[in-house]
Amino acid sequence: xxxxxxxxxxxxxxxxxxxxxxxxxxxxxxxxxxxxxxxxxxxxxxxxxxxxxxxxxxxxxxxxxxxxxxxxxxxxxxxxxxxxxxxxxxxxxxxxxxxxxxxxxxxxxxxxxxxxxxxxxxxxxxxxxxxxxxxxxxxxxxxxxxxxxxxxxxxxxxxxxxxxxxxxxxxxxxxxxxxxxxxxxxxxxxxxxxxxxxxxxxxxxxxxxxxxxxxxxxxxxxxxxxxxxxxxxxxxxxxxxxxxxxxxxxxxxxxxxxxxxxxxxxxxxxxxxxxxxxxxxxxxxxxxxxxxxxxxxxxxxxxxxxxxxxxxxxxxxxxxxxxxxxxxxxxxxxxxxxxxxxxxxxxxxxxxxxxxxxxxxxxxxxxxxxxxxxxxxxxxxxxxxxxxxxxxxxxxxxxxxxxxxxxxxxxxxxxxxxxxxxxxxxxxxxxxxxxxxxxxxxxxxxxxxxxxxxxxxxxxxxxxxxxx
Length: 468
Description:
Radius of gyration: 22 Å
Number of helices: 19
CATH architecture: Up-down Bundle
Strand order of the largest sheet: 1-2
Order of helices and strands: HHHHHHHHEEHHHHHHHHHHH
Strand content: under 5%
Helix content: 55-70%
Largest sheet: 2 strands, antiparallel
Structural class: mainly alpha
Shape: globular
């Protein structure tokens, strides 16, 4: 029993007959990481970040990359030590206790669900831009924006959310070949943007580099500055855990995971910084900030309408797969929490197709509501809040287990664990403090609601507590 409730027993990664084949080396892991990281954020949030930091958004991407690299190393150590489902929730349960695990699981609901909504709104903006500029079809503005933007509902965002939910309900699964193809499409589209946009870069567009300063501060009722932008574009780095979950299959975990994680994070960060640098260098940042699909907008402004349509089309094709992965991940978090007795078992009951139908349905509706009625920036900020809590919990769990159980056999060890973990914790707290106050307050309210549910239901139905 820990200070924060019972601790889930650690499972061993090297049980006889249950080890995965060690077939991956660092190039495989680096490619996996780049494919998982590069996607939604760079397509949808570059403009939002530029509006908050000006050209300084380049620095925002760099800072997020450093913090996420430290957190990723902590994730890797924990995933090799506790190779079971549940991600940050399970790691926290084993290291810190049931109450904190519940808080992290509740935060992951915020992360996964609102990440889906963020992608859906970004997909909607690209679809609308592609329809208007590509084939001249103009849809009613009231059906393309939520109330905050003067509309009624963002109907395309609602549509794609419910469509992906439908696919999951009938048991749809992504094909590995399709995933590889989508990654190639995304990378080629970003490469085309950089190649065509680079000659149009003007040094004057970078002056001043940080028009709103470095630290987040209130400007016209909302936070701005490099750190305020970092609190939003942080979303662009989701996905690195794809590398840490492959830890058991690494040929030389100590080397391959370190190179794979740091390498994929470094390359992705460089790509992000390069794309952002070209975007704010080719056009004044205020023009980019006003666009929901910044990269195609830049290309159209530079006289490349066909390439702009292709880049927008790449986003339209590739982004729904991200929603599918996030919804799928959400259902698995719920499944593990229900298996532990902290949620009603009916929540994770599977249908004849093997899908947890009820929770998928509820998640899809929740995602669609947020996507339809809440602005992109607000959703991304709330999603980031949940992720930051999870990152802090995993980093603390890694440090605690290093100190409490140094004798455990670790396939992978985080380099200079106290410094790496400390940087991840401090960076995440700093980014969280840069979020708008309303996002911070909403997150605290969400956590309070979760704790009420835990003490009303989870505490009394916990399998670990009943087993004592």
